[in-house]
Design brief:
The protein is mostly helical and 200 residues long. The chain contains 10 helices and no strands.
Length: 200
């Protein structure tokens, strides 16, 4: 499948007529996190069918993207690795966009695809990638990886790491199952930097 031949969405985006007060409150939960127009975001326009579920989740996700104690670079590396290993094209491309704004580079993206053994990484980044892969593969982290991380990340940072990986596993499978379409900007980023093969 071409990068520009997106599968048909299983859930349509809401229309202008469906933008209730609850929907606008939901959008407000993510205002200021992105220079792009939140009210035109394909994910939010799809999730807006269920504001009672989505709005509290977005408040939580806002913490992961704005007030998490994890270093921003480490957070983005972890999210990108989840997207790559879980074969989540929309999540991968959307976090390419965010990561570029935060200073990550094409070399970082290539190294994320290669994984923890790539020579590109610092020791902390390498250990974090081992942790991400273990969490994705078996919903656990072994003692050696945990013990390598805890001298470098405090308890709150470790919790942020675990909640970030778990949340983005959830989002990746949700985006995939709902067949959320990449907008043209994300398709272009996927073409430039590569994309995981979708499982569908």
């Amino acid at each position: 499948m071409s990068l520009f031949q997106e599968p048909a969405p299983r859930v349509p985006q809401i229309t202008e007529a469906e933008r209730t007060g609850e929907v606008h409150k939901m959008f407000a939960a993510m205002e200021g996190l992105s220079p792009s127009n939140i009210a035109q975001n394909p994910v939010l326009l799809t999730f807006a069918h269920y504001p009672a579920l989505t709005q509290p989740f977005l408040v939580f996700n806002r913490h992961l993207l704005s007030t998490s104690k994890l270093p921003v670079r480490l957070r983005q590396i972890a999210i990108l690795r989840v997207a790559w290993t879980r074969r989540a094209p929309y999540m991968w491309a959307s976090h390419l966009r965010l990561s570029l704004r935060l200073g990550l580079t094409a070399a970082d993206f290539d190294a994320v695809k290669s994984g923890a053994d790539c020579a590109h990484w610092s020791e902390l980044e390498r250990t974090t990638l081992h942790a991400v892969d273990q969490l994705c593969a078996r919903s656990d982290m072994d003692d050696s990886t945990w013990n390598a991380l805890t001298p470098q990340l405090d308890r709150q940072q470790m919790m942020d790491l675990l909640f970030t990986v778990g949340t983005y596993i959830l989002l990746g499978l949700t985006f995939n199952a709902m067949r959320i379409e990449r907008e043209p900007e994300l398709q272009e980023l996927a073409q430039r930097y590569g994309s995981p093969a979708a499982p569908f």
